[in-house]
Amino acid sequence: MFLGDHVATRLPRRGSLVAVLFLAGMLAVSAKSGSSAENPVVLTHAAGDDLPAYDFKYTNGLYATIAGFVSIKDPELKSQRSYKLKVENFKNKFPVKAIIQRESAPLVVVLLGIDGKADGALGKLWPSWFAEAGYHVLTFDSTFLPTFTENSGHGVTGNLVAESERVRDIIKAFLEQTDVKGRITKLGIVGMSYGGIEALVLGKMAKEGALPFNVDAIQSYSAPINLRTTGEVIDKWFAEDRWDYTLVELAGKLQGHKPVSPDSPVPFPDSVMRAGIAAIFRLGLVDVIVRNDKMYKMNVLPRGNNFDDDFVKRDYASVMGYTAFMNDLSFPYWQKKANMQQLSDLTSPVELSNLLDKQPSYSQLIIAEDDPLNTPEDFSTLKAKFAEPGLLILPHGGHLGYVNTPWVKAKLLSMFKHSRNSSAAMK
Q1: Using the 8-state DSSP alphabet, how is residue 106 labeled?
Q2: CA-CA distance, 145 to 132, in Å (whole number)?
Q3: Domains of the chain, with CATH numbers?
Q4: For the chain, which end, N or C, has fewer CB atoms within 10 Å of the first or last residue's CB respectively?
Q5: With the C-alpha atoms ordered 195, 196, 197, 201, is the resulting torsion angle positive or negative?
Q6: Alpha-carbon gap, residue 249 to 235, rounded angstroms
Q7: Over the stretch 163-217, which tens digit does the pLDDT of each residue have?
Q8: For residue 389, is the peptide bond before it cis, meaning its omega torsion is within 30 degrees of 0?
Q9: What Cα–Cα distance (Å) separates residue 139 from each residue in 225, 231, 416?
Q10: Residue 68: beta bridge partners?
Q11: Crossing angle for the helix pair 194-207 and 160-175, nearest 10 degrees?
């Protein structure tokens, strides 16, 4: 029954949505259907930064997530160039995008969300701001994508600590390139969503002295508080909401949507937004499952015959979900390779409650209180344990729905105001 619907139609422009909606599938209890923003909360301070007032106006966290990203225009980056880095212990040369200024300048590394592409609209947004401000910029596709695993050869996707270590190796290789060697005055790392977790893992490594370069500033935006919990909710939405609509219906409602004014009712029922997010995430996950299963000979997916083997594997993968992927494919691989005893050995180290207290003073997490990616329980635990300046809570904004606001631009460009004192990126 499900198979026919899966192969009939796919949501167009998957990358443009899922890059920003990665696991944005948790509608917080406080995000009410049909709510508007007639009386938005205004944040006028931010850990001592001289920033414009934060006045994000959508108060439904789920719709804020969608509206914030469908409004992003594709920036033009004439100065961005493609490079292929020789990275230590990688199987293949690794493709990156970089903007290199003529003069010495700070370097900012931008880490993208789970399906983020460096040449996508969202992937180019923040680099365009940094480039305009005179910074060097380095970015590359998400480490969750199968192309990353194929180039790195590090192991099955899903081990965020291992993926962050590979990010470390990429940055090191870039710093050794002739074009930038000796021309970097400071180094900053910014991450969004999945990449936000990686930024915090690198922050922990920096505090432990485990990086081969100095880091001066870290900003993490909308990093999922507990990735395992978020995945479970997405799976639930796929089971409970996804099948109330065909992919054609979801595409018709969400594709090309123009955000309504903040004082208007939300134009979609919550169930449509949950279904759309669940469907588009699952479509992206299928390729991750199939290619990891093949690359590392996990043999989790059933085999077909010579004519329908790929079809059979993809059909099976389409109903696995994130939880099954982690339990049946990612964890078994890392259990053997890294001698892990239980799934929590893989997931607990990247929970924010276990990362924020291990950050250097120049690291900060920025997260919206109505971020639909997080359960109220996870958010309450985080707030009870941490406070400013390491944790900055915005009143509204959904999951990265605020990504294109003047406040975020100012916040990003002020990242070195409270950085550590160093004059060279390389140790």
Answers
A1: E
A2: 29
A3: 2-70+228-346 (no CATH), 81-226+350-418 (3.40.50.1820)
A4: N
A5: positive
A6: 20
A7: 999 999 999 999 998 889 889 999 999 999 999 999 999 999 999 999 999 999 9
A8: yes
A9: 23, 25, 18
A10: none
A11: 70
